[in-house]
Each structure stands twice: as C-alpha cells, then as structure tokens.
Design brief:
The complex is a heterodimer. Chain A is an alpha+beta fold. Chain A has 21 helices and 9 strands. In chain A, helix 6 packs antiparallel against helix 8, helix 8 packs across helix 9 and helix 10 packs across helix 12. Chain B has one domain. Classes of the chains: A alpha+beta, B mainly alpha.
C-alpha cells in the first residue's frame, strides 16, 4: 500500500510530519540544496556542535507552522472583534497547505553560509528573500508544483514565506499578513521559535530553550488594541504571557551569547572578505541555475585552494579562517563610552584606520530592529492590552546593541596601547555634518 | 543624512508632537514622519509602503528600536489599552546638543507637521496619510477619483470622510509648498 504520510526524525521536534505532496517539495533540487547550507555560517568554529543546516530548520518551521495555524483558526480561539479576517471554513484547508509550503520554502533562497555575506555580495535590491521568491516561481519548481494535488499558487506561497516587509511590490490582505506574521513575524514567527530551539541545542547553550507547546497553544488573532478600527495581528491570551516572556528573553540571550559572539562575528567578516575577493563585490550569481550550484561545499573547497595558493585573491582571509588567524577584539561598546558617543565604535574604527591603515581593522555594528516585545494580549475579561504595559519583563527587556572593532593579530599590541592613550579624545569626537 | 543627525530630527519631531497633545505611539510617529518626508520634503530616507493604518515604514520601526537600544529614545506606558508611547531617552540631550544646527535648520518643518498632526487620533491619521499616499501615486487625479481610490484601500472609511481627507491633504500640500519656498 502506498504511504501518503511520512515522518522524518528531528532533533528538536522528534518528528517532522509531512504528506506526499510536501515530500515532493522536500525532494526538489532547490530544497535539497539546503542540506549544504549551514544554519549558522561559520559558528561551528566557535561552537563545534553548531553544524546543523537550513534543511532541518525548514522542516521544523513547517511542523510548527501547521500547529500554529490549527490553533489560531480553531473556532474556540477566534475573537469576535476580528472574526471578519478569517476565510470561509472550506478555504481553511487550502490555506493550511499554503502556510506549510511557505514555511518549508521560507529559507530556500539562502546564500552559502546563510547571512554571513549577503549584503556585500548580492546586487543592490536583491536579498535572500527575493531569491527565494524567484526560486518558488521558477521553472525549477514549476514541475514540482504541477505534480501536487490542490497546489497553492506559487505567488501565495512566496507572499507567506517572505511577508510584506521584504515583498514590497505585493499587496497583502489582512489574512495574508496574519499568516506571514505566523511564519516570519517579529514577535512570534515560528521561524524564530524553531531557530532558537535548534541553534541552542546544537550550539550547546541552554538559553534558547522555550516552552513552545504552551506558547503556540496561546497564540490568537486579536485586534491590536481596544480602539475602534484597530487592525488584527497575532497576539496571545493572558495565560501565555510568561511563555512569551521566555521566548523573548531566550532571543535576547541567544543574540548576546551566540549570534553576536565576537569571534563568530569576525569569522563572518573574514568569510565575507573572502567571498568578495573571490567573486567580486555585488557579483554573486543570481541567475538561478548558477545560484543553485553554489553551496557551502563549493566555498569550503575554494577556501582550501586559496589557503594553498598565495596568488589567490582571497588568500589572506582564507588563511585567517582556516588557520585561526582571525582578527581579535580591540574595542566593544560599554555604557560609559556610549554616554559620550552612541557611535563610539565607529569613532574608534575611523581613528584606528587613519593611524594604522584600514586593512588591519574591521568594524561590526548592530542595533536591535523590529518591535518584537509589543503585541496585543487578551486578558481574562476580554480586554485587549499592550504586552509592554502588562509585563514588567517585556517593558524592561534589554535590546541588543553590538559595537565591535577588531584588529589584525599582528597589530594588536600596538593598537591596544594606542587606544589606551587616546581613548577619551577619540570617543569624545562627534562632529555635526550639516550636509 | 547621517544617522545621528536623523536621530536628532526624529527626537525634535517626537517632542513637538507631544507638545501638540500627541500620544506618540508608533502609529503617530510613522504618519508624522511620512508627512515630514513626503510632503515637507525632508530627506530622512525611510521607505514607506501600504501596511498598518496606511503608509508604514519597516525601516522606521527598526530605527525607533535602534534608537531605544542607544538610549536616545525610551518607551513609556501611560494607558495599557493604547500601547506604549515614545519619549526622549537618557542620551537624547547629548544628541540634541551635538546636532543643534540641524535641529534649528528644520525647526519650522518639524513644527509644521506637529501642528497639523499632533492632535489627531489613529483613525484620522490613517485617513490623512492614506490620502497623501493616494495623492503621490495618482498625480493629477480628481478629488472624486482619489477619494474612490482611498475607499478601495480602506473600505472601513466613510465616503464623506475619505473626500474630506483628500481635500484636507490638498490644502496641506499647498501650505507645504509655501513652507518649502521660505
């Protein structure tokens, strides 16, 4: 007898369950490529266990997306004030299919080593989300979609997989916005839930452990506030507030401890330098045949070649990656300096480049984005309140703020001495530019 | 425009909006910056698309959070029903002091926007900002056409409110030209 439902063993969810149509997508060339894209770039050079790939993450996101969809659409969980946003009951099943397909495909456009070099390598106005949309709508996938019973339109899958933020030319209905938020949303996207759980498991840090079952069970579609005309969005029931706090705290700690670990970040920068030297700035191939051929495997082979060949344009960064000759941390943000100059790292980097030469220094700046901590909460008496008002934890949740300056190891001692002597003068300089 | 220079203008706008009675939640700031950029012509460089309550910039949401991370802005909770308000943070004074020339240069533009939008509620801001969006994307179209377009984008708006919003935005655009000519 032909089997129509399948299970794949998964380190986080025990099983990722899928039907035969979903398996056709999993078996497609673009999806199988994700087996060769590390989820966390070169993080395994810092956390040796972090060798997991986008492939299993995408399966996990599909698993969670199906569960989240079932919870938010269940009759008993619908809020009458936003009942208009739900589609007719006979359309729920096709939407569920679209959501799971979109979750499966949400990372299908990732470059080798995930985010490490995306901005510098891709042409302007191209990002992994746009590439993902192109792949979903491509000839390479056309045959896959054609073989699926009641297949959603590729454009619907693309919209839900990417969301309005990255798909600016598309118009989203309120329902499509809700579904995209369920997958890739700032606050509770299942993408985020899976990567926190999976990355923490593989990196060997406990911070990313969240109460996913409780959290998903309390997800609701709610009006954003109690005001007339408030738009619908994904929020939670009051009983889920603690699990939501846990998720957002886990995110903060994972950012601080794993994603923005300074050595992990400098490896990303060296990788970006290598790829730029090898392929050229903004020259990463975006024609899909060539794009699909490039995975981490091809890059690792080229790094190994470049290490042996001094004439290779990427020899120097390749050597730093493969021989652990990475730049060291010279400066990092602290409250005292930030009180004098919010962009202290930039000031240190500019002054250091002027003094010693730009090739010896790298600057890495990231400030938290989005508005993850602010979402509607449905209280037991039916009122809608802001999460930030209701939760002391969310009101005081720290925001990620990274400002690193790295120095080449051969200039480290000299640069540290120079910075100690000139620190106040450098950091105090903020010039108004009226241009 | 430099990052901190732009931050100094956002701070000025938030303070001016508060003086006019604005709640200064994210929606109020989004719509005020939209007018500041698209009607008054200040190059703050945010990209707007139609999303929550009309024109909306994800870049601006990111920037507001980033400014909180830098303690240039902070969140205040005044009434749990309406979400938090933005207010100047611990380092706001430093930024304003360092970028005093920029703040002075654009003072009239900031006051102009705050004076017209500071006392509006979310529903009014949604109508007016969508009317501006329609105006910018339908140059030369008649009032009736643009009101119809606004209604297609925002079906919950009453037809007479849509037309009023179109007319008001046209008047504001004339005033803004005079301001820019000064």
């Amino acid at each position: 007898m032909v089997k129509h439902f399948h299970e794949i063993r998964d380190a986080v969810h025990a099983f990722a369950r899928l039907d035969s149509d979903e398996r056709k997508v999993v078996d497609s060339v673009p999806f199988q490529r994700l087996r060769h894209i590390h989820q966390l770039g070169l993080s395994h050079l810092v956390y040796p266990g972090a060798t997991h790939r986008r492939f299993e993450h995408s399966l996990g996101v599909m698993e969670l997306a199906g569960r989240a969809f079932d919870v938010i659409t269940a009759d008993e969980n619908r809020d009458h004030r936003v009942a208009w946003v739900f589609p007719q009951r006979d359309l729920l099943s096709p939407w569920r299919r679209a959501v799971r397909m979109a979750a499966l495909c949400h990372d299908i456009g990732h470059l080798p080593f995930s985010h490490a070099a995306e901005t510098k390598l891709l042409p302007k106005d191209v990002n992994h989300e746009k590439l993902g949309v192109d792949i979903i709508k491509s000839d390479a996938m056309k045959q896959t979609w054609a073989g699926i019973t009641f297949a959603p339109q590729p454009n619907d899958i693309a919209k839900l997989a990417v969301g309005p933020r990255k798909l600016k030319d598309e118009t989203f209905s309120a329902w499509e916005r809700i579904l995209a938020e369920t997958i890739v949303g700032d606050s509770f996207g299942v993408d985020r839930m899976d990567y926190l759980l999976r990355d923490s498991l593989h990196a060997g840090v406990v911070y990313g452990r969240i109460d996913q079952y409780r959290h998903i069970d309390t997800l609701r579609v709610l009006p954003e506030s109690d005001q007339d005309g408030a738009e619908p969005r994904v929020g939670i029931e009051a009983g889920g507030l603690q699990s939501a706090e846990g998720l957002l705290l886990a995110r903060y700690f994972m950012y601080s401890q794993v994603y923005f670990h300074p050595v992990r970040r400098i490896y990303d920068i060296h990788l970006c330098d290598f790829l730029t030297a090898w392929l050229g700035e903004n020259q990463f191939p975006t024609d899909l045949d060539r794009f699909l051929e490039l995975t981490d495997n091809e890059v690792l082979v080229e790094i190994a070649k470049a290490v042996r060949d001094e004439s290779h344009p990427g020899h120097e960064p390749a050597h730093r990656i493969a021989r652990r000759g990475h730049f060291r941390l010279l400066y990092e943000r602290n409250p005292t300096d930030a009180a004098k100059n919010p962009d202290a790292g930039e000031a240190v980097h500019n002054a250091a480049c002027q003094r010693f030469g730009g090739e010896f220094f790298r600057h890495d700046r990231y400030r938290e984005q989005g508005s993850a901590a602010d979402f509607p909460v449905k209280m037991r008496d039916g009122r809608i309140v802001s999460s930030v008002a209701e939760s002391d934890v969310l009101r005081n949740l720290p925001l990620v703020n990274v400002d690193y300056v790295f120095v080449a190891p051969e200039r480290r001692v000299e640069a540290e001495g120079w910075l100690a002597d000139n620190r106040d003068d450098i950091i105090g300089r903020v010039e108004e530019d009226e241009s | 425009m430099k990052k901190l220079q732009r931050a100094s203008l956002l701070l000025s706008l938030i303070e001016a909006m508060k003086r006019q009675g604005s709640w200064c939640g994210e929606t109020s700031i989004q719509k005020a910056v939209y007018f500041f950029q698209e009607m008054v012509g200040i190059p703050t460089g945010f990209e707007f698309l139609l999303y929550k309550y009309g024109p909306y910039s994800f870049d601006l949401t990111d920037e507001l959070t980033a400014l909180r991370a830098d303690a240039i802005l902070t969140l205040e909770v005044r009434d749990p029903r309406y979400g938090p308000s933005f207010a100047p943070g611990e380092l706001a004074a430093l930024v304003k002091e360092r970028f005093a020339k920029t703040i002075n240069r654009y003072r009239d533009h900031v006051e102009w926007v705050a004076g017209r939008l500071g006392n509006r509620n979310v529903a009014e801001l949604e109508r007016l900002s969508t009317a501006l969006y329609v105006r910018l994307h339908n140059a030369g179209a008649s009032t009736e056409n643009r009101a119809a377009q606004l209604l297609r984008l925002k079906p919950h708006v009453r037809p007479d409110d849509a037309e009023k919003a179109i007319i008001e935005v046209d008047q504001m655009a004339e005033d803004a030209e005079a301001l820019q000519a000064q």
